TrEMBL record:
Keyword terms: Carbohydrate metabolism, Glycosyltransferase, Pyridoxal phosphate, Transferase
Name of this chain's protein: Alpha-1,4 glucan phosphorylase
The reaction(s) this protein catalyses: [(1->4)-alpha-D-glucosyl](n) + phosphate = [(1->4)-alpha-D-glucosyl](n-1) + alpha-D-glucose 1-phosphate
Family statement: Belongs to the glycogen phosphorylase family.
Named cofactor requirement(s): pyridoxal 5'-phosphate
GO molecular function: 1,4-alpha-oligoglucan phosphorylase activity
Length: 829
């Protein structure tokens, strides 16, 4: 009772606090009847969930309308965050928390003998993103609303989300993620009256009568229908929107022609489905660019529909277009929406009749860009012919931008063709999207200090030299409301009891927890919370996979996309080595460990899929070996999503963050583990470095090559992994085990073996292996000293304040979007 009122408060406007639960129960029962024509007794949990979500939506609706009206009246500067991906996670629990309804709802349902947690479990977890980039976008939406800033997401309403992963015999299989089974999502508002039309293909005719006019003809026009998902701020009455666009064709007025084949309306309907397939699926590649026509089409569809509707709203409000940069900001999340630069130019030039210089000035002052990766395979470069055929007018504009840009470069660097070519937006038969994004933005940011440094010194060094004032770093942040209050309510409660609840509004206050590092009763209570979370996780694993895990064991989790640079395979090699130590000495004193893996591999990424197979082969071998005596368990959780992360992170002791240094732009899982008291084992890359700086050497386990060392190796042609093979018996043994029948699949892991030994070990797994094993041993020894370990956990939570999304977002507000008001969490600094 006390706990809930402390961390959620109650803000239920149509009932007073005393009778709230009862009225809630009545309203809920009536809603089940209204929605399903059923009494509560005969309604299924899914039906109850839908009725509850619908009830909660009524609270959101009013606030959504009020927020919109208030913004209009105050003429507040708006931010539009354009992203091809959003991973919002389940919304019911988040909305209850943010609306302050958690307590009244939980208790009202309890009166009806309904367990809220069971209804929460009925919600689909929308998988409209691949991983970190999409989840970050969702965290920022939460922060924008919670800080009371007018920030909205613009994305695509994919009919099917990221594929559902099922593993059979260790092999990943993909199934469509049919998240809109019922045809709609319970949170969204369809707004057909705000439909925009997006044009593809055709040709452009130029007419010169005093001024040049560009007539776009013979194009295919596709309707973009917006669906708005309300995003509630944390107990502040604000509700912003996430606007998702869907490709739709209205055939009501389309005559069916009955030709001699007698097909009639069949053709019309078939065409409708073909056109609408534009927004059917999310591309499942993470950090890899897929040069497919449909992807470019999706990018333009999102950008064009969003910008048309943003400009229309601006003009309807009778605002001057020249004031656009003062009235709104358009942010592009990685290069995927960078067509926004050309589309904004098109709208200003062709639709609103402005001149080039003025349009360019408005565009560059309105748009800003975040880069999220330096991996070359993720850099988008579209072939000219494909680009030009699909977007003829946009291509003309990109050509003009490129010409003017190159002229400027020529003035700066006369004769330096090589430099100009390296920076050109159109070069080598392709359109370079990152170059377009940089040229068209007034701010370009990286997502961690080291990543920004690599952008400045390497990946974008020419651009940095040209316009250093554009570049800045904003280290990512995540919402502690979802990742602490919702995912780990017992920890949140414990913290409130110790230091009060001000940390919820200002996570820097978590520092006060350091005063409790020597307080036995607090340390005990914290250990108890962790144990309860481990138990919850263990129960899930037992129920789902029939694997019993030891809740006293060290739970070590590696959960993220499966990718060679994230080095799940190095984790596997360490577990093999640990196992070998038991085989060599069955009585070896080994700290009991549970290794948890979860993550999807891109369907076309053979080696990543084989890593999943390898993890399963290892689990099969170890989990059933009587010699191991349950001292090691390996578990792979299928179909990793936001909800799984909410379960695994609070129940973990150790957070695996072991990418090849220089490759992980930032990482955000690392922050979520940290704020839940897990200790990081990590390389000095991305935000791991910031975590290390925050917690100090004693509270993190770092190892391996630094980014500078890795980059130096690349410059000098790599290293020879066979040297390590010959020097380190442990490495030799695990390498041989990949191919010598140790696993009952002799040729299955040949690709891994070859990548490590015969192809130069591009990700430096063998190079970092010895140090990794060493810190793993150190970590296990420190884990058994529970007092010492508890202090590490506290230090991690206490120093996690700077990784709150509110801090990151506030930095954007101040340094990128130039929002007039200072967000509250920056006011005190
Ligand atoms: C990801 N980038 C990075 O790989 C992560 O390190 C980072 O934490 C997140 O972005 C969020 O910034 C991508 O997913 C992409 F698409 F850019 F490759």
């Amino acid at each position: 009772m006390q706990r809930e009122s402390q961390i959620t408060g109650t803000n239920f406007d149509f009932v007073d606090a005393m009778s709230g639960e009862e009225d809630f129960a009545i309203a809920f029962t009536a809603n089940v009847m209204k929605l399903h024509g059923k009494s509560l007794d005969s309604a299924s949990n899914r039906e109850k969930y839908l009725a509850l979500a619908d009830l909660v939506r009524t609270f959101l609706s009013k606030r959504l309308a009020d927020t919109e009206a208030a913004y209009r009246q105050e003429q507040k500067k708006q931010v539009y965050y354009l992203s091809l991906e959003f991973l919002p996670g389940r919304l019911l629990a988040a909305n209850l928390l943010n609306l302050g309804l958690q307590q009244v709802c939980e208790q009202g349902l309890r009166r009806l003998n309904i367990n809220l947690a069971e209804l929460i479990d009925q919600e689909e977890d929308p998988a409209l993103g691949n991983g970190g980039l999409g989840r970050l976008a969702a965290c920022y939406l939460d922060s924008m609303a919670s800080l009371g800033l007018a920030g909205h997401g613009c994305g695509i309403r994919y009919r099917y989300g990221l594929f559902e992963q099922r593993v059979t015999d260790g092999y990943q299989r993909e199934f469509p993620d049919n998240w809109l089974k019922e045809g709609r999502n319970e949170w969204e508002y369809r707004r057909p009256e705000e439909t925009m039309n997006v044009r593809f293909g055709g040709r452009v005719r130029t007419i010169a009568n005093g001024k040049l006019h560009f007539i776009h003809e013979n194009y295919q026009q596709i309707s973009a229908v917006p669906y708005d998902i309300p995003i509630a701020g944390y107990q502040n009455e604000i509700v912003n929107t996430l606007r998702l666009w869907s490709a739709e064709v209205d055939v009501t007025y389309q005559a069916c022609t009955f030709d001699r084949h007698g097909k009639g309306c069949i053709n019309v309907i078939a065409d409708k489905h073909a056109t609408e397939s534009l927004t059917d699926t999310l591309y499942p590649d993470d950090s890899v660019y897929e040069g497919k026509l449909l992807r470019l089409k999706q990018q333009y569809f999102l950008v064009s529909a969003s910008l048309q509707s943003i400009l229309r709203k601006h003009v309807v409000n009778k605002a001057d277009l020249r004031l656009l940069p003062e009235k709104l900001s358009i942010h592009i999340n990685d290069t995927h929406p960078s067509l926004a630069v050309a589309e904004l130019m098109r709208l200003l030039l062709d639709e609103y009749g402005l001149g080039w210089a003025e349009s360019w000035d408005i565009t560059t002052r309105t748009i800003s860009y975040t880069n999220h990766t330096v991996l070359p395979e993720a850099l988008e470069k579209w072939p000219i012919d494909l680009f030009q055929t699909l977007l003829p007018r946009i291509y003309m504009i990109v050509q003009e931008i490129n010409e003017r840009f190159c002229r400027e470069l020529w003035d700066m660097y006369p004769g330096d063709w090589q430099k100009i070519k390296a920076m050109a937006i159109i070069a080598d038969g392709t359109v370079h999207m990152a170059a377009l994004a940089i040229a068209g933005s007034h701010r370009v940011n990286g997502v961690s200090a080291i990543h920004t440094q690599i952008l400045k010194q390497k990946t974008m060094s020419d651009f940095y030299q040209l316009t250093p004032q554009k570049f800045l770093n904003i280290t990512n942040g995540v919402t502690h409301r979802r990742w602490m209050l919702l995912a780990n309510p017992d920890l949140a409660q414990l913290i409130c009891e110790a230091i009060g609840d001000r940390w919820i509004a200002n996570p820097d206050e978590l520092q006060h927890l350091l005063n409790f590092a020597h307080d036995n009763s607090f340390c005990c209570a914290m250990a108890k919370v962790k144990f309860a979370n481990k138990l919850r996780l263990a129960k899930y694993i037992q129920a789902k996979y029939g694997i019993a895990i030891d809740t006293c064991s060290l739970i070590d989790s590696h959960i993220k996309r499966i990718h060679a640079y994230k080095r799940q395979s190095m984790n596997v090699l360490h577990i093999m080595d640990l196992y070998n130590r038991i085989l060599d000495n069955p009585h070896a004193d080994i700290v009991p460990r549970t290794f948890i893996f979860a993550g999807k591999a891109a369907p076309g990424y053979y080696k990543a899929k084989q890593t999943i197979k390898l993890i399963h082969a290892l689990a099969e071998k170890i989990n059933h070996d009587p010699l191991v005596k349950n001292r090691i368990k390996v578990v792979f959780l299928q179909n990793y999503n936001v909800s799984h992360a909410e379960l695994i992170i609070p129940g973990s002791d150790v957070s695996e963050q072991i990418p090849t240094a220089s490759m992980e732009a930032c990482g955000t899982g690392n922050m979520k583990f940290m704020m839940n008291g897990a200790v990081t084992i990590g390389t000095l890359d991305g935000a791991n470095i910031a975590i290390w700086e925050a917690v100090g050497d004693d509270n993190i386990f770092t190892f391996g090559l630094t980014a500078d060392q890795v980059l130096a190796y690349y410059r000098n042609g790599g290293y020879n992994p066979w040297d390590i093979y010959h020097q380190d018996l442990r490495v030799k043994t695990v390498m041989e085990q990949l191919v010598n029948g140790f696993f009952p699949y002799p040729e299955e892991f040949r690709a891994h073996y070859d990548a490590f030994l015969n192809q130069g070990d591009h990700y430096f797994v063998l190079k970092d292996f010895a140090q990794y094993v060493e810190v793993q041993n150190k970590l296990a020894n420190e884990f058994i000293n529970t007092e010492l370990w508890q202090k590490k956990c506290i230090a991690n939570v206490a120093h996690s304040g700077i990784f709150a999304g509110d801090r990151a977002f506030a930095e954007y507000a101040l340094s990128v979007w130039d929002l007039a008001e200072r967000p509250p969490c920056l006011r005190q600094h």
